[in-house]
Design brief:
The chain is α/β, with parallel strands linked by helices. It has a single domain, classed as Rossmann fold, CATH 3.40.50. About 60% of the residues lie in helices and about 15% in strands. It has nine helices and five strands; from the N terminus they run βαβαααβαβαααβα. It has a five-stranded parallel β-sheet with strand order 2-3-1-4-5, with helices on both faces. α2 packs across α3, α3 runs antiparallel to α4 and α4 runs parallel beside α5. The longest helix has 15 residues.
Length: about 190
């Protein structure tokens, strides 16, 4: 089983690369945003619990998100592995994820961190905003704030996986195929 945390700032190319990893390695994509929307739509107990927080404008607590991920792991127990996208974002979340995986005799094999300069991220997100219509991709100020938030609050998580010798930094600049080949090289050498 192969379990990867795909990591990087907004605009680094995680979505694009996830699709190719899913195809090549037959992995299940676990995006916390997608899982949350699915749980809400299906009105599961965890979805109802999450909605209580969301209706108040609060972040969904880690234990609720971990519960949702646990459900997905159980639903796909025979899979060849998972790509974790958007989770974990903090050391506390990474510890909770490790504990959940340990209960299921699983573990994270690698964190693949896409490295892209802020200037390029801004360019990419503004370009994506023209096509996607996403409001958070159409303002350079909002994009800059998202990148600052990532650098302050999320990027430090790399140290957690580095201490476990599971951090692999991949240059996120270049063609999609160039980046894909670099990521595949990391995975194939695990």
């Amino acid at each position: 089983m192969l379990n990867i945390v795909l990591f990087g700032p907004p605009g680094a190319g995680k979505g694009t690369q996830s699709e190719m990893l899913i195809e090549k390695y037959n992995l299940i994509h676990l995006s916390t945003g997608d899982i949350l929307r699915k749980e809400l739509a299906n009105e599961t107990d965890l979805g109802i619990e999450a909605k209580k927080y969301m209706d108040q404008g609060l972040l969904v607590p880690d234990e609720v998100v971990i519960g949702m991920i646990g459900t997905q792991l159980e639903n796909h127990i025979d899979s060849e592995g998972f790509i974790f996208d958007g989770f974990p974002r903090t050391t506390e979340q990474a510890i909770a994820l490790d504990n959940l995986l340990k209960e299921k005799n699983m573990f994270i094999d690698a964190m693949i961190s896409l490295q892209v300069e802020d200037k390029e991220l801004i360019r990419r997100l503004l370009e994506r905003g023209k096509d996607s219509g996403r409001a958070d991709d159409q303002s350079e100020e909002i994009i800059s704030n998202r990148i600052k938030e990532y650098n302050l609050k999320t990027a430090p998580l790399k140290a957690f996986y580095d201490k476990q010798n599971k951090l692999f930094e991949v240059n996120g600049l270049g063609s999609i195929d160039y980046i894909k080949n670099n990521i595949h090289s990391v995975i194939d050498n695990l």
